[in-house]
Amino acid sequence: MSEPVYHVPVLLQEVMDGLNIRPQGVYVDCTFGGGGHSKEILKRLNGQGRLIVFDQDADAKENVPDDDRVTFVPHNFRHLQRFLRLHKATAVDGIIADLGVSSHQFDEAERGFSIRFDGELDMRMDKRQTQTAHTVITTYSEQQLHKLFEQYGEVTNAKTLARTIVQLRNTRSMKTIANFKEALHSVVKGNPNRYFAQVFQALRIEVNDELGALKELLQQFPSVLKPGGRVAVITFHSLEDRLVKNFFKKGNFEEEEQHDPFGQISFTPPLTVITKKPVIPAEAERQINPRSRSAKLRIAEKL
Ligand SMILES: C[S@@+](CC[C@H](N)C(=O)[O-])C[C@H]1O[C@@H](n2cnc3c(N)ncnc32)[C@H](O)[C@@H]1O
Hints:
With 303 residues, the protein is of the alpha/beta class. The chain has helices spanning 12-19, 36-44, 80-86, 103-107, 133-139, 142-153, 158-168, 177-183, 192-207, 210-224, 238-250, 283-288, and strands at residues 26-29, 50-54, 70-73, 92-98, 225-235, 271-273, 296-302. The protein is 38% helix and 14% strand. It has a seven-stranded mixed sheet with strand order 3-2-1-4-5-7-6, with helices on both faces.
């Protein structure tokens, strides 16, 4: 039998075109995973080029190529600038962030990310952290659970789900995925797979503080990029995409346009948007790789 594929990179050609790689440049892959995007970057770098790759999941280290130009940073990308300084790369030519979890993480039953398997209700990308999905459902208040299921999972009956978890959690075990699904079967609305996929997405975002880490990452782009340097971000749900879109356009995360009736505030956003609309995978890629279907790529350049 052939080895299972760790991860198939999404929008590979589009990312390479967008980054416009300088052969002697310094590049950062914030989400190394199986190294699909990194591998393509390396092909375009010459002997002077450098690639610094981040992944908070220790499993990704196995995929790091034996190449002097590559530095692996086994930490959260929210510490981008700190680790770039540590590795003497204060200004970089390009950055890629391909957000979310890898197929490898989904396919490993014991990581607890997938509703297809049984395993501990875990969902940590970084196993050094103590908070798991199980600690979230057993320690959060009903209001906190309600909010996260509503905002991060768009679960239709988020309030009922939160209330039921709180009612049952002292008497029913919810340690494993099977326990959790079984305990909550009476609150499921519509297709159970779709329902639990939304519940799991919400828990995963919370456990890994995905939106918090993304905000911190975005805020560091203007100070770590060289003038003319580019950043490419691939998102997989609307909450992430909105943060990227607003930050690229306005340099902040506000939804509302700032009104300036007297036209006195002159503000130049720190990045220039290259992709006015997000780039989405072509039909051929969507057919071959169903995971790519929700992907959106946005690219910006440092002024
Ligand atoms: C979608 S996969 C990236 C796949 C990669 N582009 C490839 O071609 O194989 C996302 C990876 O980023 C890592 N990751 C997600 N959020 C992270 C964060 N905040 N800090 C560091 N790594 C993160 C995950 O552990 C996972 O391995």
